[in-house]
Design a protein that fits this description.
Blueprint lengths: L12 H14 L16 E3 L2 E8 L5 E2 L2 E2 H15 L3 E12 L4 H18 L2 E10 L7 E10 L2 H11 L19 E4 L5 H11 L15 H10 L2 E5 L5 H13 L2 E5 L7 H10 L13 E4 L4 H9 L8 E7 L5 E4 L5 E3 L13
Parallel strand pairs: 5-6, 10-13
Antiparallel strand pairs: 1-2, 2-7, 3-4, 5-7, 8-11, 8-12, 9-11, 10-12, 13-14
Length: 348
Amino acid sequence: MERITIAHGAGGTIMANMIKNYILKHLGGSSAEVPLEALDDSAVVDGIVLKSDSHAVKPLFFPGGDIGRLAVAGTVNDIAMIGAKPLALTCGMVLEEGLPLTDLDKILGSMEQTCKEAGVYVVTGDTKVIENSGFGGCVINTSGIGKRTAALDHNIAEVKKHRQFSSRWLLDSNLRAGDKLIVSGTVGDHGVTILSAQEGYNFGSNIKSDVTPLNNLTLKLLEVGGIVAMKDPTRGGLSNSLNEWSTKSDVGLMIHELNVPLRGDVKAACEMLGIDPFEIGNEGKVLIGVVPQKAEEVLATLQETKEGKKAAIIGEATDNFSEVVLETVVGGKRIMAPPVGDPIPRIC
């Protein structure tokens, strides 16, 4: 009898197959503008953007953040990726018997601070307590709603100046040959931070999670315009996000390894552990697809911000092939296949 494993929640091909063969088999089928079957970062029903996200990171506290900050930022970012403005959140908490109340207070204080940064409020929720069972103390579900903005309409108008574009939202299926690909900063920081905290590794550096709400940043980018798709490369990392774009848009992607921002200490840690930094989850980065005519302007706007000062154009969409291809630092080329699963469990 097949059973659920940690890999089923790791954001790679095993999880994708479970969603396709089990979840979509029974759920979905709505006439929503962006339905469940699209598997985008958020759904859209009657113009309302909806998102639900559960968080079971281990440990609850880690350098750069905690489960509370992660829960707020994760849902806010998914709403922002489709081009919407987050308005309000719900919070469902499952607490384990024995969790110190001081830890709960720290988590809630972190959620409060992150909500202030993002400009949202928690407006309703639910709390349950279960027996001590060793799952880590706390699991949080945050759901959210968002709305369309004038900035998104302006952005789409800018896209239409340069090519045909029929979508009303920034979807994974919007890329076309010629579009440039931008990442807002260094990749792999969050995943390596969580692994270090889980296993007690000391890499002799100041690696910390990048977890942060990105909705104010994405609003600035939409005001520049020309963006066709956005995605936060969480579980499965950059590699998984790029492969989702390639598959849903039916276009090849050429990625230049030399251009992908990567901290030296993160690279060294991944080499030591035999982990691909492009397959490790991030929680404060955005991957952007933009028409070539606006790419440099979007990049310049990113680099003026704290969150995007290390942003770079890392590749482009192409009709020359149908896969994600990585041009390596030595000039060779290889297929960047989707990961089977994130090599680090319970990162979010």
